[in-house]
Recover the amino acids of this structure.
């Protein structure tokens, strides 16, 4: 009985004490014992109701706190098309640009691998937005 509320355990012992011990199976139960059991069950019901109300109130508090935290957190901005490009095409574009290829040459090389918006975003990211097809990186070979 260690996990039972001590007060409830005391009531249980009192009920058994009224009858002089646990009633034998099939024996009639005195009215006093029936009333004591009913009172005990009523107390247990009240205890359960109080516990459920406390749990419900705490759940409401936690839910409100979670809602507040969700309002405070800003969603991450969506990935740009250049960030959505896989590692292999990006590495190839960087290697070509560093080796001295023009924006137009890199664009032509990636045409089979990437859609136009992804390619344009990657080239803008690498060479700068709005640069012409003949643009090279400043440290690339001429």
């Amino acid at each position: 009985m260690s996990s039972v509320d001590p007060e409830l355990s005391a009531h249980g012992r009192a009920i058994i004490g009224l009858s002089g011990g646990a009633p034998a199976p099939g024996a009639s139960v005195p009215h006093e014992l029936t009333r004591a059991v009913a009172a005990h069950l009523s107390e247990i019901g009240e205890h359960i109701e109080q516990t459920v109300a406390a749990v419900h109130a705490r759940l409401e508090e936690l839910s409100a706190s979670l809602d507040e935290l969700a309002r405070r957190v800003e969603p991450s901005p969506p990935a740009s098309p250049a960030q959505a490009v896989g590692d292999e095409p990006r590495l190839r574009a960087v290697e070509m640009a560093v080796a001295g290829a023009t924006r137009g040459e890199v664009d032509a090389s990636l045409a089979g691998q990437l859609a136009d918006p992804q390619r344009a975003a990657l080239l803008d990211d690498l060479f700068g937005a709005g640069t012409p097809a003949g643009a090279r990186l400043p440290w690339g070979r001429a």
Q: What stands out?
A: The chain has five helices and no strands.
